Amino acid sequence: MIAAVSSASSAVHVYKLSIASSYTLVQTIALGGAAVRALTIAPDASALAVSDFSSKTSIYGWDSSTSQFVAASSMPLSVACSSLAASSQSSSGATTIVCASSPSPILSLLNSMSSLSLTTSLMISGSYAAAAITPDGSIVALSDGSSSTTIYSATTGSVIATISERSSSVALSSDAAIVFVGDQSFNSNAGRAVWYDSNAAPTVTLQPMSQSVSLGSTATFTAAATGYATVQWSFTGSSTRRRSVLGGATPIPGATSTSFTTNPTTLAFNGNTYSATFTSTTGVSTTTSTVTLTVSSSSSGSASGDPHLVGYDGQQYDFVGEVGSVYNFLTDSDVQFNALLGSVRATEHLNLPGEFITAIGIKFRNHSVVVDGGSHRRAGSVTIDHRPAKIADTIKQQQHHAVLLVDGEFRVEREVFVDAMFGEDFGLPDAEQRIVGRVIVTTPSYSFSIFMVEEGFDEVDKRWHTPFPHRYLDLSVRLERADIATPHGVLGQSLHAMRDRKERGVPIGEAGSFSIEGRTEDYRVGGGAESLLGDSFVFNRFGSKRK
After folding, report:
1. Chain region(s) in the chain for CATH 2.60.40.10
2. CATH code 2.60.40.10 for 203-296
3. How do strand 149-153 and strand 203-206 relate by DSSP bridges?
4. Fold of 2-197
5. What pTM does this model have?
6. How do residues 424-446 score in pLDDT, each as one tens digit?
7. Measured between alpha carbons, how far is 246 from 239 in angstroms, rounded to an integer?
Protein backbone atom coordinates (compact mmCIF):
# COMPACT_ATOMS: atom_id res chain seq x y z
CA MET A 1 0.00 0.00 0.00
CA ILE A 2 1.35 3.39 -1.05
CA ALA A 3 0.41 6.82 0.34
CA ALA A 4 1.42 10.27 -0.88
CA VAL A 5 1.25 13.46 1.18
CA SER A 6 2.29 17.04 0.47
CA SER A 7 4.25 19.19 2.84
CA ALA A 8 4.88 22.85 3.47
CA SER A 9 8.35 22.41 2.01
CA SER A 10 7.01 22.21 -1.56
CA ALA A 11 7.47 18.45 -1.81
CA VAL A 12 5.46 15.25 -2.07
CA HIS A 13 6.38 12.45 0.31
CA VAL A 14 5.64 8.86 -0.69
CA TYR A 15 5.12 6.27 2.04
CA LYS A 16 4.78 2.50 1.81
CA LEU A 17 2.90 0.36 4.32
CA SER A 18 5.24 -2.22 5.85
CA ILE A 19 4.47 -5.65 7.21
CA ALA A 20 4.56 -4.16 10.71
CA SER A 21 1.54 -2.01 9.79
CA SER A 22 3.54 1.19 9.75
CA TYR A 23 4.37 3.54 6.91
CA THR A 24 7.95 3.98 5.76
CA LEU A 25 9.11 6.93 3.67
CA VAL A 26 10.34 5.59 0.32
CA GLN A 27 10.54 8.70 -1.86
CA THR A 28 10.46 12.48 -1.74
CA ILE A 29 9.51 14.41 -4.88
CA ALA A 30 10.61 18.06 -4.89
CA LEU A 31 8.44 20.54 -6.73
CA GLY A 32 10.99 23.29 -7.30
CA GLY A 33 9.81 25.69 -4.63
CA ALA A 34 6.11 25.92 -5.52
CA ALA A 35 3.48 24.82 -3.02
CA VAL A 36 1.20 21.87 -3.80
CA ARG A 37 -2.27 22.81 -5.04
CA ALA A 38 -3.71 19.39 -5.97
CA LEU A 39 -2.50 15.83 -5.45
CA THR A 40 -3.86 12.39 -6.38
CA ILE A 41 -2.64 8.81 -6.44
CA ALA A 42 -4.23 5.96 -8.40
CA PRO A 43 -6.11 3.34 -6.29
CA ASP A 44 -3.53 0.73 -7.35
CA ALA A 45 -0.62 3.21 -7.05
CA SER A 46 0.05 2.92 -10.80
CA ALA A 47 0.29 6.70 -11.13
CA LEU A 48 0.68 9.88 -9.16
CA ALA A 49 -0.23 13.42 -10.27
CA VAL A 50 0.57 16.70 -8.57
CA SER A 51 -0.18 20.31 -9.49
CA ASP A 52 1.36 23.41 -7.88
CA PHE A 53 0.33 27.02 -7.57
CA SER A 54 2.66 28.10 -10.38
CA SER A 55 0.43 26.48 -13.03
CA LYS A 56 2.59 23.38 -13.41
CA THR A 57 1.40 19.76 -13.28
CA SER A 58 3.57 16.63 -13.23
CA ILE A 59 2.49 13.04 -13.90
CA TYR A 60 4.44 10.08 -12.49
CA GLY A 61 4.23 6.34 -13.12
CA TRP A 62 5.23 3.59 -10.74
CA ASP A 63 8.50 1.82 -11.56
CA SER A 64 8.33 -1.63 -9.97
CA SER A 65 12.04 -2.28 -10.52
CA THR A 66 13.04 0.64 -8.29
CA SER A 67 9.85 0.91 -6.20
CA GLN A 68 9.77 4.60 -7.05
CA PHE A 69 7.55 6.98 -8.97
CA VAL A 70 9.20 8.13 -12.20
CA ALA A 71 8.16 11.27 -14.08
CA ALA A 72 6.72 10.89 -17.57
CA SER A 73 8.61 12.65 -20.36
CA SER A 74 8.21 16.41 -20.95
CA MET A 75 7.18 17.12 -17.36
CA PRO A 76 5.91 19.42 -15.99
CA LEU A 77 2.84 20.23 -18.06
CA SER A 78 1.89 23.89 -18.36
CA VAL A 79 -1.57 23.45 -16.92
CA ALA A 80 -3.01 24.47 -13.55
CA CYS A 81 -5.25 21.82 -11.98
CA SER A 82 -7.56 22.87 -9.14
CA SER A 83 -8.22 19.17 -8.50
CA LEU A 84 -6.85 15.86 -9.79
CA ALA A 85 -8.21 12.29 -9.88
CA ALA A 86 -6.72 9.03 -11.21
CA SER A 87 -8.12 5.62 -12.11
CA SER A 88 -6.54 2.22 -11.62
CA GLN A 89 -4.37 0.81 -14.38
CA SER A 90 -6.25 -0.98 -17.17
CA SER A 91 -5.30 -4.37 -18.61
CA SER A 92 -3.52 -2.52 -21.42
CA GLY A 93 -1.33 -0.68 -18.91
CA ALA A 94 -3.08 2.71 -19.11
CA THR A 95 -4.07 4.89 -16.15
CA THR A 96 -6.61 7.67 -16.76
CA ILE A 97 -6.08 11.02 -15.03
CA VAL A 98 -8.53 13.93 -15.00
CA CYS A 99 -7.52 17.52 -14.24
CA ALA A 100 -10.12 20.10 -13.17
CA SER A 101 -9.10 23.22 -15.03
CA SER A 102 -10.25 25.52 -17.84
CA PRO A 103 -10.59 23.52 -20.06
CA SER A 104 -10.14 20.15 -18.31
CA PRO A 105 -7.87 17.55 -19.94
CA ILE A 106 -8.38 13.81 -19.55
CA LEU A 107 -4.94 12.19 -19.77
CA SER A 108 -3.84 8.62 -20.39
CA LEU A 109 -0.56 7.41 -18.88
CA LEU A 110 0.64 4.19 -20.53
CA ASN A 111 3.16 2.24 -18.46
CA SER A 112 4.76 -0.55 -20.49
CA MET A 113 7.56 -2.29 -18.59
CA SER A 114 8.36 0.99 -16.78
CA SER A 115 8.44 2.91 -20.09
CA LEU A 116 6.02 5.82 -19.74
CA SER A 117 4.07 7.69 -22.42
CA LEU A 118 1.44 10.35 -21.75
CA THR A 119 -1.31 11.42 -24.16
CA THR A 120 -4.35 13.67 -23.95
CA SER A 121 -7.45 11.56 -24.61
CA LEU A 122 -10.06 14.29 -24.36
CA MET A 123 -10.45 17.96 -23.53
CA ILE A 124 -13.64 18.92 -21.66
CA SER A 125 -14.63 22.51 -22.32
CA GLY A 126 -15.69 24.80 -19.47
CA SER A 127 -14.13 25.84 -16.18
CA TYR A 128 -14.07 23.33 -13.31
CA ALA A 129 -12.77 23.32 -9.74
CA ALA A 130 -13.19 19.71 -8.58
CA ALA A 131 -12.73 16.30 -10.26
CA ALA A 132 -13.46 12.63 -9.59
CA ILE A 133 -13.12 9.43 -11.64
CA THR A 134 -14.29 5.83 -11.33
CA PRO A 135 -11.58 3.20 -10.69
CA ASP A 136 -11.99 1.76 -14.17
CA GLY A 137 -11.49 5.21 -15.74
CA SER A 138 -14.76 5.16 -17.70
CA ILE A 139 -16.69 7.95 -15.96
CA VAL A 140 -15.52 11.35 -14.66
CA ALA A 141 -17.29 14.01 -12.59
CA LEU A 142 -16.37 17.70 -12.81
CA SER A 143 -17.77 20.44 -10.56
CA ASP A 144 -17.66 24.10 -11.53
CA GLY A 145 -17.63 25.28 -7.90
CA SER A 146 -20.58 27.61 -8.39
CA SER A 147 -23.73 25.97 -9.72
CA SER A 148 -23.45 22.42 -11.07
CA THR A 149 -21.61 19.10 -11.33
CA THR A 150 -21.46 17.30 -14.69
CA ILE A 151 -20.88 13.58 -15.23
CA TYR A 152 -19.03 12.69 -18.47
CA SER A 153 -17.99 9.58 -20.34
CA ALA A 154 -14.19 9.54 -20.11
CA THR A 155 -13.93 7.81 -23.50
CA THR A 156 -16.28 9.93 -25.63
CA GLY A 157 -16.71 13.13 -23.62
CA SER A 158 -20.51 12.86 -23.89
CA VAL A 159 -22.59 14.23 -21.01
CA ILE A 160 -24.19 11.50 -18.93
CA ALA A 161 -25.92 13.71 -16.36
CA THR A 162 -25.87 17.20 -14.85
CA ILE A 163 -26.56 17.83 -11.15
CA SER A 164 -27.70 21.33 -10.25
CA GLU A 165 -25.75 21.49 -7.01
CA ARG A 166 -23.06 23.96 -6.03
CA SER A 167 -19.96 22.09 -4.92
CA SER A 168 -16.29 22.60 -4.18
CA SER A 169 -15.47 18.89 -4.01
CA VAL A 170 -16.86 15.78 -5.65
CA ALA A 171 -16.55 11.98 -5.37
CA LEU A 172 -17.90 9.04 -7.40
CA SER A 173 -18.78 5.51 -6.33
CA SER A 174 -16.95 2.75 -8.22
CA ASP A 175 -19.96 2.14 -10.51
CA ALA A 176 -20.74 5.89 -10.81
CA ALA A 177 -24.20 5.17 -9.37
CA ILE A 178 -23.68 7.66 -6.54
CA VAL A 179 -22.26 11.16 -6.83
CA PHE A 180 -21.12 12.81 -3.58
CA VAL A 181 -20.74 16.61 -3.63
CA GLY A 182 -19.46 18.92 -0.90
CA ASP A 183 -20.40 22.61 -0.67
CA GLN A 184 -18.23 24.41 1.85
CA SER A 185 -20.00 27.77 1.40
CA PHE A 186 -23.48 26.44 2.23
CA ASN A 187 -25.28 28.21 5.11
CA SER A 188 -22.72 30.95 5.67
CA ASN A 189 -19.77 28.61 5.20
CA ALA A 190 -21.16 26.00 7.60
CA GLY A 191 -20.91 23.57 4.66
CA ARG A 192 -22.81 20.45 3.73
CA ALA A 193 -22.40 17.21 1.76
CA VAL A 194 -25.09 15.80 -0.54
CA TRP A 195 -25.22 12.54 -2.44
CA TYR A 196 -27.20 11.78 -5.57
CA ASP A 197 -28.36 8.33 -6.69
CA SER A 198 -28.25 7.82 -10.47
CA ASN A 199 -30.77 4.96 -10.58
CA ALA A 200 -33.08 7.25 -12.51
CA ALA A 201 -33.65 6.18 -16.11
CA PRO A 202 -32.17 8.27 -18.95
CA THR A 203 -34.49 10.89 -20.43
CA VAL A 204 -35.00 10.92 -24.20
CA THR A 205 -34.75 14.49 -25.50
CA LEU A 206 -34.99 13.74 -29.24
CA GLN A 207 -37.09 10.91 -30.65
CA PRO A 208 -36.08 9.37 -34.00
CA MET A 209 -38.34 9.95 -36.99
CA SER A 210 -39.64 7.49 -39.58
CA GLN A 211 -37.81 7.69 -42.91
CA SER A 212 -38.84 7.15 -46.53
CA VAL A 213 -36.06 6.55 -49.06
CA SER A 214 -35.77 5.34 -52.61
CA LEU A 215 -34.43 1.88 -53.40
CA GLY A 216 -30.64 1.72 -53.05
CA SER A 217 -30.38 4.82 -50.84
CA THR A 218 -29.36 4.82 -47.16
CA ALA A 219 -31.48 6.05 -44.25
CA THR A 220 -30.20 7.83 -41.13
CA PHE A 221 -31.97 7.80 -37.77
CA THR A 222 -31.01 10.16 -34.94
CA ALA A 223 -31.96 10.28 -31.25
CA ALA A 224 -30.70 12.06 -28.12
CA ALA A 225 -31.00 11.63 -24.35
CA THR A 226 -29.57 12.78 -21.04
CA GLY A 227 -28.37 10.65 -18.13
CA TYR A 228 -27.00 7.80 -20.24
CA ALA A 229 -23.65 6.05 -20.59
CA THR A 230 -24.28 3.90 -23.67
CA VAL A 231 -26.70 3.76 -26.60
CA GLN A 232 -27.65 0.79 -28.79
CA TRP A 233 -29.78 0.81 -31.94
CA SER A 234 -32.00 -2.19 -32.68
CA PHE A 235 -34.30 -3.22 -35.52
CA THR A 236 -37.04 -5.65 -36.39
CA GLY A 237 -37.56 -7.08 -39.87
CA SER A 238 -35.12 -8.28 -42.52
CA SER A 239 -31.42 -8.19 -41.75
CA THR A 240 -29.12 -5.82 -43.54
CA ARG A 241 -27.09 -8.46 -45.36
CA ARG A 242 -28.93 -11.79 -45.54
CA ARG A 243 -32.53 -12.82 -45.67
CA SER A 244 -33.70 -13.42 -42.12
CA VAL A 245 -37.05 -12.38 -40.72
CA LEU A 246 -36.46 -11.96 -37.03
CA GLY A 247 -38.77 -11.83 -34.06
CA GLY A 248 -38.28 -9.06 -31.53
CA ALA A 249 -35.85 -6.17 -31.67
CA THR A 250 -32.33 -7.24 -32.62
CA PRO A 251 -29.29 -5.11 -31.67
CA ILE A 252 -27.37 -3.81 -34.69
CA PRO A 253 -23.62 -4.52 -34.31
CA GLY A 254 -21.61 -1.32 -34.10
CA ALA A 255 -24.66 0.97 -33.95
CA THR A 256 -23.69 2.58 -30.65
CA SER A 257 -23.83 6.32 -31.34
CA THR A 258 -26.78 8.70 -31.33
CA SER A 259 -27.12 8.41 -35.12
CA PHE A 260 -27.39 5.22 -37.17
CA THR A 261 -27.18 4.90 -40.97
CA THR A 262 -28.40 1.77 -42.74
CA ASN A 263 -26.64 -0.08 -45.52
CA PRO A 264 -27.85 0.78 -49.05
CA THR A 265 -31.45 -0.37 -48.98
CA THR A 266 -33.10 -3.21 -50.85
CA LEU A 267 -36.84 -3.81 -50.94
CA ALA A 268 -36.37 -6.24 -48.05
CA PHE A 269 -35.73 -3.21 -45.81
CA ASN A 270 -39.24 -1.88 -46.47
CA GLY A 271 -41.23 -1.98 -43.24
CA ASN A 272 -38.23 -2.47 -40.95
CA THR A 273 -38.58 -0.71 -37.60
CA TYR A 274 -35.79 0.93 -35.60
CA SER A 275 -35.31 2.19 -32.05
CA ALA A 276 -32.48 3.31 -29.77
CA THR A 277 -31.97 2.21 -26.17
CA PHE A 278 -30.13 4.56 -23.81
CA THR A 279 -28.63 2.94 -20.69
CA SER A 280 -27.29 4.62 -17.55
CA THR A 281 -24.12 3.62 -15.71
CA THR A 282 -26.22 1.49 -13.36
CA GLY A 283 -27.94 -0.39 -16.17
CA VAL A 284 -31.25 1.47 -16.14
CA SER A 285 -32.54 1.85 -19.71
CA THR A 286 -34.96 3.97 -21.69
CA THR A 287 -35.95 3.06 -25.25
CA THR A 288 -37.08 5.58 -27.83
CA SER A 289 -40.25 5.29 -29.82
CA THR A 290 -40.13 2.76 -32.66
CA VAL A 291 -39.97 4.23 -36.16
CA THR A 292 -40.47 2.70 -39.59
CA LEU A 293 -38.34 2.65 -42.73
CA THR A 294 -40.21 2.82 -46.03
CA VAL A 295 -38.32 1.88 -49.21
CA SER A 296 -39.96 2.86 -52.47
CA SER A 297 -39.01 1.47 -55.83
CA SER A 298 -38.89 3.56 -58.96
CA SER A 299 -40.61 2.21 -62.09
CA SER A 300 -39.09 -1.15 -62.98
CA GLY A 301 -39.76 -4.38 -64.79
CA SER A 302 -38.33 -7.80 -64.01
CA ALA A 303 -38.02 -11.38 -65.18
CA SER A 304 -37.18 -14.41 -63.08
CA GLY A 305 -37.30 -18.16 -63.16
CA ASP A 306 -39.23 -19.87 -65.96
CA PRO A 307 -39.29 -16.83 -66.88
CA HIS A 308 -42.06 -14.99 -65.05
CA LEU A 309 -42.25 -11.31 -65.96
CA VAL A 310 -43.51 -8.27 -64.10
CA GLY A 311 -44.04 -5.31 -66.41
CA TYR A 312 -43.53 -1.62 -65.69
CA ASP A 313 -47.28 -1.45 -65.21
CA GLY A 314 -47.12 -4.03 -62.40
CA GLN A 315 -48.80 -6.76 -64.43
CA GLN A 316 -47.44 -10.31 -64.19
CA TYR A 317 -47.18 -12.47 -67.28
CA ASP A 318 -45.16 -15.40 -68.63
CA PHE A 319 -43.15 -15.60 -71.81
CA VAL A 320 -42.81 -18.94 -73.55
CA GLY A 321 -40.16 -19.16 -76.25
CA GLU A 322 -38.01 -21.84 -77.79
CA VAL A 323 -35.06 -23.30 -75.86
CA GLY A 324 -31.82 -22.29 -77.52
CA SER A 325 -33.28 -19.10 -79.05
CA VAL A 326 -32.49 -15.46 -78.29
CA TYR A 327 -35.38 -13.04 -77.78
CA ASN A 328 -35.47 -9.28 -77.38
CA PHE A 329 -36.77 -8.07 -74.03
CA LEU A 330 -36.08 -4.35 -74.45
CA THR A 331 -35.08 -2.23 -77.44
CA ASP A 332 -34.67 1.55 -77.62
CA SER A 333 -32.76 4.00 -79.81
CA ASP A 334 -29.41 3.55 -77.99
CA VAL A 335 -30.04 0.50 -75.77
CA GLN A 336 -30.84 -3.10 -76.55
CA PHE A 337 -31.30 -6.07 -74.23
CA ASN A 338 -31.60 -9.67 -75.51
CA ALA A 339 -31.94 -12.91 -73.57
CA LEU A 340 -31.03 -16.51 -74.42
CA LEU A 341 -33.54 -19.09 -73.19
CA GLY A 342 -32.05 -22.42 -72.19
CA SER A 343 -32.38 -25.48 -69.99
CA VAL A 344 -31.08 -26.00 -66.43
CA ARG A 345 -29.68 -29.42 -65.57
CA ALA A 346 -31.40 -31.20 -62.64
CA THR A 347 -29.63 -34.58 -62.73
CA GLU A 348 -27.10 -36.32 -64.96
CA HIS A 349 -29.82 -37.09 -67.52
CA LEU A 350 -32.74 -34.72 -66.77
CA ASN A 351 -33.35 -30.98 -66.94
CA LEU A 352 -35.59 -28.87 -64.74
CA PRO A 353 -39.03 -28.39 -66.30
CA GLY A 354 -39.46 -25.14 -68.23
CA GLU A 355 -37.00 -22.72 -69.78
CA PHE A 356 -34.75 -20.17 -68.09
CA ILE A 357 -32.69 -17.14 -69.04
CA THR A 358 -29.17 -18.52 -69.31
CA ALA A 359 -27.38 -15.58 -70.94
CA ILE A 360 -28.03 -11.88 -71.57
CA GLY A 361 -26.61 -9.47 -74.14
CA ILE A 362 -26.82 -5.68 -73.72
CA LYS A 363 -25.77 -3.05 -76.26
CA PHE A 364 -25.38 0.64 -75.50
CA ARG A 365 -24.24 2.72 -78.45
CA ASN A 366 -20.82 1.21 -79.35
CA HIS A 367 -20.45 -0.87 -76.15
CA SER A 368 -21.59 -4.41 -75.45
CA VAL A 369 -21.96 -6.54 -72.31
CA VAL A 370 -22.63 -10.28 -72.32
CA VAL A 371 -23.47 -12.05 -69.06
CA ASP A 372 -23.30 -15.85 -69.07
CA GLY A 373 -25.27 -17.45 -66.23
CA GLY A 374 -23.02 -20.52 -66.19
CA SER A 375 -24.10 -24.14 -66.08
CA HIS A 376 -24.09 -27.10 -63.72
CA ARG A 377 -20.33 -27.46 -64.36
CA ARG A 378 -19.11 -23.86 -64.49
CA ALA A 379 -19.78 -20.52 -62.84
CA GLY A 380 -21.06 -17.49 -64.72
CA SER A 381 -18.90 -14.92 -66.51
CA VAL A 382 -18.98 -11.40 -67.90
CA THR A 383 -17.69 -10.19 -71.27
CA ILE A 384 -17.35 -6.47 -72.06
CA ASP A 385 -16.78 -5.28 -75.62
CA HIS A 386 -16.00 -8.89 -76.64
CA ARG A 387 -13.26 -9.25 -73.98
CA PRO A 388 -13.60 -11.31 -70.77
CA ALA A 389 -13.79 -9.07 -67.69
CA LYS A 390 -10.87 -9.83 -65.37
CA ILE A 391 -12.45 -9.17 -62.01
CA ALA A 392 -11.10 -11.62 -59.44
CA ASP A 393 -8.32 -9.44 -58.06
CA THR A 394 -10.43 -6.28 -58.16
CA ILE A 395 -13.24 -7.91 -56.23
CA LYS A 396 -10.85 -9.04 -53.48
CA GLN A 397 -9.45 -5.56 -53.16
CA GLN A 398 -12.80 -3.79 -53.10
CA GLN A 399 -14.71 -6.11 -50.78
CA HIS A 400 -16.55 -8.13 -53.47
CA HIS A 401 -17.56 -5.13 -55.57
CA ALA A 402 -15.82 -4.16 -58.79
CA VAL A 403 -16.35 -1.36 -61.29
CA LEU A 404 -15.59 -3.00 -64.64
CA LEU A 405 -16.10 -0.08 -67.02
CA VAL A 406 -16.98 3.61 -66.90
CA ASP A 407 -17.40 5.57 -70.14
CA GLY A 408 -19.32 8.78 -69.62
CA GLU A 409 -22.95 7.83 -68.93
CA PHE A 410 -22.26 4.11 -69.33
CA ARG A 411 -21.18 2.08 -66.30
CA VAL A 412 -20.70 -1.65 -65.64
CA GLU A 413 -20.28 -3.07 -62.12
CA ARG A 414 -20.20 -6.52 -60.58
CA GLU A 415 -20.98 -7.68 -57.05
CA VAL A 416 -20.23 -11.07 -55.50
CA PHE A 417 -22.25 -11.88 -52.37
CA VAL A 418 -20.19 -13.85 -49.84
CA ASP A 419 -23.42 -14.48 -47.93
CA ALA A 420 -26.03 -15.27 -50.54
CA MET A 421 -28.99 -12.92 -50.84
CA PHE A 422 -32.48 -13.74 -52.02
CA GLY A 423 -35.03 -12.62 -54.56
CA GLU A 424 -37.05 -10.72 -51.96
CA ASP A 425 -34.03 -8.52 -51.22
CA PHE A 426 -34.32 -7.09 -54.73
CA GLY A 427 -38.09 -7.20 -55.22
CA LEU A 428 -37.97 -10.11 -57.67
CA PRO A 429 -41.13 -12.15 -58.30
CA ASP A 430 -39.54 -15.29 -56.83
CA ALA A 431 -38.65 -14.25 -53.27
CA GLU A 432 -36.92 -17.54 -52.44
CA GLN A 433 -34.32 -17.56 -55.21
CA ARG A 434 -30.72 -17.70 -53.96
CA ILE A 435 -28.67 -14.85 -55.46
CA VAL A 436 -24.86 -15.15 -55.39
CA GLY A 437 -23.93 -12.16 -57.54
CA ARG A 438 -25.14 -9.24 -59.59
CA VAL A 439 -24.00 -7.35 -62.69
CA ILE A 440 -25.24 -3.75 -62.90
CA VAL A 441 -25.29 -1.98 -66.27
CA THR A 442 -26.27 1.70 -66.09
CA THR A 443 -27.24 3.92 -69.02
CA PRO A 444 -28.93 7.34 -69.03
CA SER A 445 -32.38 5.77 -69.57
CA TYR A 446 -32.16 2.43 -67.79
CA SER A 447 -30.36 0.56 -65.03
CA PHE A 448 -30.10 -3.20 -65.65
CA SER A 449 -29.53 -5.51 -62.67
CA ILE A 450 -28.64 -9.03 -63.81
CA PHE A 451 -28.78 -11.51 -60.94
CA MET A 452 -26.74 -14.72 -60.90
CA VAL A 453 -28.96 -17.41 -59.42
CA GLU A 454 -27.39 -20.52 -57.91
CA GLU A 455 -29.90 -22.82 -56.29
CA GLY A 456 -29.52 -26.18 -54.56
CA PHE A 457 -27.29 -25.06 -51.67
CA ASP A 458 -28.52 -25.33 -48.08
CA GLU A 459 -27.56 -22.13 -46.23
CA VAL A 460 -28.12 -23.78 -42.83
CA ASP A 461 -26.18 -27.02 -43.37
CA LYS A 462 -23.72 -25.33 -45.75
CA ARG A 463 -23.87 -28.17 -48.27
CA TRP A 464 -25.38 -28.98 -51.67
CA HIS A 465 -28.65 -30.90 -51.51
CA THR A 466 -29.05 -31.29 -55.29
CA PRO A 467 -26.83 -33.31 -57.66
CA PHE A 468 -25.85 -30.14 -59.53
CA PRO A 469 -26.00 -26.40 -58.89
CA HIS A 470 -28.98 -24.88 -60.69
CA ARG A 471 -27.52 -21.78 -62.39
CA TYR A 472 -29.40 -19.23 -64.47
CA LEU A 473 -30.12 -15.48 -64.60
CA ASP A 474 -32.81 -13.15 -63.30
CA LEU A 475 -33.09 -9.50 -64.18
CA SER A 476 -34.60 -6.20 -63.16
CA VAL A 477 -34.70 -3.12 -65.40
CA ARG A 478 -35.26 0.20 -63.66
CA LEU A 479 -36.39 3.26 -65.57
CA GLU A 480 -33.97 6.16 -64.95
CA ARG A 481 -35.30 8.81 -67.34
CA ALA A 482 -38.96 8.43 -68.27
CA ASP A 483 -38.81 11.51 -70.47
CA ILE A 484 -36.33 9.99 -72.93
CA ALA A 485 -37.31 6.29 -72.81
CA THR A 486 -39.45 4.96 -75.69
CA PRO A 487 -38.84 1.19 -75.55
CA HIS A 488 -40.33 -1.86 -77.16
CA GLY A 489 -39.58 -5.54 -76.62
CA VAL A 490 -41.21 -8.28 -74.57
CA LEU A 491 -40.65 -6.33 -71.34
CA GLY A 492 -40.01 -2.81 -72.63
CA GLN A 493 -43.43 -2.29 -74.18
CA SER A 494 -45.08 -2.53 -70.75
CA LEU A 495 -43.70 0.96 -70.05
CA HIS A 496 -46.33 2.38 -72.40
CA ALA A 497 -49.03 0.48 -70.51
CA MET A 498 -47.72 2.04 -67.27
CA ARG A 499 -47.92 5.54 -68.75
CA ASP A 500 -51.43 4.84 -70.01
CA ARG A 501 -52.49 3.67 -66.54
CA LYS A 502 -51.08 6.81 -64.91
CA GLU A 503 -52.89 9.03 -67.38
CA ARG A 504 -56.19 7.23 -66.72
CA GLY A 505 -55.61 7.10 -62.94
CA VAL A 506 -55.55 3.29 -62.83
CA PRO A 507 -53.38 1.96 -59.95
CA ILE A 508 -50.16 0.28 -61.05
CA GLY A 509 -50.46 -3.49 -60.69
CA GLU A 510 -54.23 -3.62 -60.97
CA ALA A 511 -55.48 -6.15 -63.50
CA GLY A 512 -55.83 -4.68 -66.96
CA SER A 513 -56.15 -5.57 -70.62
CA PHE A 514 -52.48 -5.22 -71.62
CA SER A 515 -51.15 -7.96 -73.90
CA ILE A 516 -47.85 -8.34 -75.75
CA GLU A 517 -47.96 -6.97 -79.27
CA GLY A 518 -47.55 -9.41 -82.15
CA ARG A 519 -46.35 -13.02 -81.97
CA THR A 520 -43.54 -14.69 -80.05
CA GLU A 521 -41.60 -15.12 -83.30
CA ASP A 522 -41.62 -11.33 -83.81
CA TYR A 523 -39.18 -10.99 -80.87
CA ARG A 524 -36.85 -13.83 -81.88
CA VAL A 525 -33.39 -12.48 -82.71
CA GLY A 526 -31.76 -15.79 -83.66
CA GLY A 527 -30.50 -19.09 -82.37
CA GLY A 528 -27.69 -19.64 -79.88
CA ALA A 529 -25.41 -17.33 -77.90
CA GLU A 530 -23.93 -15.83 -81.06
CA SER A 531 -27.22 -13.94 -81.52
CA LEU A 532 -27.13 -12.22 -78.10
CA LEU A 533 -26.02 -8.92 -79.64
CA GLY A 534 -28.15 -9.21 -82.75
CA ASP A 535 -30.94 -6.85 -83.82
CA SER A 536 -32.74 -8.79 -86.55
CA PHE A 537 -36.33 -8.89 -85.24
CA VAL A 538 -39.60 -7.16 -86.08
CA PHE A 539 -39.75 -4.43 -83.43
CA ASN A 540 -36.07 -3.43 -83.39
CA ARG A 541 -35.48 0.23 -82.43
CA PHE A 542 -31.74 0.12 -81.72
CA GLY A 543 -29.84 2.65 -83.78
CA SER A 544 -32.94 4.63 -84.73
CA LYS A 545 -33.21 8.35 -84.07
CA ARG A 546 -35.04 9.28 -80.90
CA LYS A 547 -38.32 11.04 -81.54
Report:
1. 203-296
2. yes
3. unpaired
4. Methylamine Dehydrogenase; Chain H (2.130.10)
5. 0.49
6. 777 776 777 889 889 999 998 89
7. 8
